[in-house]
Write a structure and sequence with these properties.
By secondary structure, the chain is α+β, with helices and mostly antiparallel strands. The chain contains 6 helices and 10 strands. The longest helix is centred in the N-terminal third of the chain and has 21 residues, at about 5-25.
Length: about 210
């Protein structure tokens, strides 16, 4: 799996990730009316350059991103015996790509931050994807609470434990389960069609 191919997974996972963030942490399972995530904006590219996106009729071009080496270094190098392909981008790149929806900008303003303070990174194999969101200087819980206050709810969230860490299992209608973990100023999301309990335990045990 190349870094280019892995980048295409970002757009497909962001909608689920934002639904999950909108629910926020909860001590018990809660259910709210489901909202359909907005289809991520995509950039058309020549057929010879654009990898398949998994969405009929669409392809993603991989732009030149400003990476965050520090955030990338927090990712495990391997999961399930496969090497993770990791890609990171600045908040400006993320918001400019059209993958962030309309929610992140107002939240940054609310927190007194700019897109330059936001970093997003994704790492994945064929079975699992790990996404990290960080606003420098803002605790992950504060970031998530700010998003929760501004976004509509629409998922079921329950407590779970993997790899010795307390996490949240979030299920939106028609979507695969995504797992949420907060650590310092990073919101981690873990999911994928090939996830098993063993793979989840390995993934969370290797996160900070």
């Amino acid at each position: 799996m190349t870094a280019r191919r892995n980048a295409t997974r970002v757009g497909m996972l962001i909608g689920v990730t934002l639904i999950m963030a909108a629910c926020g942490p909860a001590a018990n399972a809660t259910t709210a009316p489901t909202t359909t995530p907005t289809t991520p904006a995509v950039t058309q590219a020549p057929a010879s350059e654009a990898p398949a996106s998994g969405l009929p009729g669409f392809s993603f071009a991989l732009p030149s991103f400003t990476s965050d080496a520090e955030l990338e270094a927090m990712f495990p190098t391997q999961l399930g015996g496969e090497t993770l392909q990791i890609l990171s981008m600045s908040g400006s790149d993320f918001m400019g790509s059209g993958m962030s929806g309309n929610e992140i900008g107002p939240i940054l303003q609310q927190l007194g931050k700019t897109p330059a303070d936001l970093s997003v990174a994704v790492g994945g194999t064929m079975d699992i994807s790990v996404i990290a969101f960080r606003i420098k200087g803002v605790p992950a819980e504060q970031f998530l609470n700010a998003y929760t206050a501004a976004a509509p709810q629409g998922a079921t969230i329950t407590d779970a434990s993997f790899g010795g860490k307390s996490v949240k299992k979030v299920v939106a209608t028609g979507q695969e389960a995504i797992y949420l973990y907060l650590h310092n100023d990073v919101i981690w999301t873990v999911g994928g069609a090939g996830t098993t309990d063993a793979l989840l335990n390995e993934a969370f045990s290797k996160l900070p």
